[in-house]
Amino acid sequence: MSIALTKGRSARFLFALPIALLAMGSIDLSADTNLDDTLSREERQKIDLSNYRVTDTNASYFDVKARMALLEQTDSTILLQLSDKLSMGPSCRQKTNSEPITTRGAIPGFYPRRTAWELATGPLFDFEDSVSNLAGSFVASGDIYYAECLVHYLYRWAEAEALTDFVYDTAQPQAWFASESMLFAAAMAYSIVRPFIDGLEEERADIEQWLQGLALQHSAVPGPPQDSCCNNHLYRRALYATMIGVLVEDNDLFRFGVSAIYSALHDMTEEGALPLEMSRGRRATHYQNYALNYLITNMQVIHRQGYDIFDLEYEDSNIHEGVDYLFQILDDPAALGDYAPQEQYTGFLRDPQYFTWMEIYLSHFDHQRMASLITRARPTYSRSAGGHVTLYFMDPDAQEHIYTDERRQETEAFRGLSN
């Protein structure tokens, strides 16, 4: 029986993986597992997406000018606190003096070697924090200093041809995975500031050429057909492809990003489960949420190009079914049925980076359960997938104060953390 089951068929099956195989982004499916009902890379490439094209190269993933105007007038305590903190941004000299990463290197797996992984990825995360914080400081302060600093910072990396030589090995794909988030961190931050920059034409041209080249090089690696060709890592590659496609008006990259949305909806079960994420055993709930983080953020980029992507129905599925299913299994793990063990890991709910997509979703739709949950997580921040998302998306009337009642937080928002 296949992992993904099309609409109208029974969507209950017994599938479990040894925990040792749950290395981040790498799922070793058994040889007798039938993947016929999931969309292959080749099938995805055949979808006619010719109607999708870049319409506004200066459209970031939110209306930066309108948001800056709102922040100047708001009396929201949360937004004011964020703005005040970010307005005192980092030292540009310190940022531009940091060394770009130009050496080849492999990165150990996340789950089997967590400490080694953290040491290896520290410099990569510094890059993501740097670009995200510079963009946030510009939005919060309106000071062009931070926008120009971001351009100078990225230019140093582009001039050094950073990240162009990464290790890819199917048995150790972490360097490839890490490159994904660095690309969309850079692209999303740059998209915020570029329309406000006068001059620096040479720097901007080099940055854009560098980003486009990296996106083409990185996305040319399809990933193993059993997993990262088509699971959350496809959605991560799609996010940088869409954003960089917008920046450089590359319709092929843009359509690659759009194709991931179609792929996810094609694979979605009748309940709204993403099958390749459900295959993660005790982390199935985490990966359903993790996948939505990139799908929803990508849809926001596409939406800003004028497409009603949030309303897309494909193969009788829509993204709202995936969202609702996440909250079903958060509220009642029994809703997982035979997809995964009911003793689910929920420690991800402690980390605000996993809530950023909810901020974006709530800027479009009402969702009472989501609106309640996110109040315990604000301010949300992702060093790569959107940066200071609460600052950019939260309705000023949604919440007045940061949630500080830790006892209530433990008992209401983060149930099941011992699992």
From TrEMBL:
Range of residues in the leader sequence: 1-31
A Pfam family annotated for this UniProt entry: Alginate_lyase
Keyword annotations from UniProtKB, A to Z: Lyase, Signal
Entry's Gene Ontology cellular component terms: periplasmic space
MF terms in GO: lyase activity
Domain (Alginate lyase): residue spans on this chain: 114-334
Coiled-coil positions: none
SUPFAM superfamilies listed in its UniProt record: Chondroitin AC/alginate lyase (SSF48230)
Protein name (record): Alginate lyase family protein
Species this protein is from: Vreelandella maris
